[in-house]
Amino acid sequence: MKSSDVLVYKGQAFSIEWYFDERGHSPAREYYEGLSDERRIKFLKLVRIMGDIGKIFDITKFRNEGDQIFAFKPQPDRYLCFFLTGKKILITNGFEKKGQKLPSGEKSRALKAKADFELRIKRGTYYEKAR
After folding, report:
1. What is the pLDDT of residues 17-27, one digit of tens each?
2. Residue range of the domain that includes 87
3. Over 90: is that where the pLDDT of 66 sits?
4. What would the mean pLDDT of 34-59 be, rounded to a whole number?
5. How distant is the alpha carbon of residue 94 from its chain centre?
6. Total tally of structural domains belonging to the chain
7. DSSP string across 48-68
8. SS3 of the chain: helix, strand, coil, percent, to 5
9. Closest Cα to residue 26, out of 8, 53, 50?
């Protein structure tokens, strides 16, 4: 995976990146790439606001899901993410939300990705494949 494959958007407030696993797969990016242009644009509009302004004031579009996991919410999709020091946001997984509640499996996936990222950063191996 090249570093250009990691970056979603670089704004004045935040750089927003796709999370990728040790094999170089990015579940969120793969989900995004399977969507229609219309649904991609809805997501990218929210990413741009967050990247440039640093906050999305509408909780129907961005929300704290607990346990340091947040969600971009371009209807009907959800993209779970977490914040990093250094003004970065890492998007871990994307999915189509079909019910009222956030599926626990999706949040677990995001928490697992966050733990994996933190471990690989500590080891100094996370960005090795992105070069």
Report:
1. 999 999 999 99
2. 3-130
3. yes
4. 97
5. 8
6. 1
7. HHHHHHS----TTTEEEEETT
8. 40, 25, 35
9. 8
CATH code where residue 45 lies:
3.30.2310.20
Residue 131: band (very low, low, confident or very high) from pLDDT cuts 50, 70, 90: very low
Give pLDDT, residue 127. 86
Q: Are 81 and 67 in contact (CB under 8 A)?
A: no
Residue with the bigger pLDDT between 117 and 5: it is 117
Instruction: Reply yes or no on whether the pLDDT at 43 is more than 80.
Output: yes
> The sheet that has 69-72: what strands, in order across it?
7-10, 15-18, 88-96, 77-84, 69-72, 62-66
Contacts of range 64-70, beta carbons closer than 8 Å, 24 or more positions apart: 65/102, 65/107, 66/107, 67/107, 67/111, 68/114, 69/107, 69/110, 69/111, 69/114
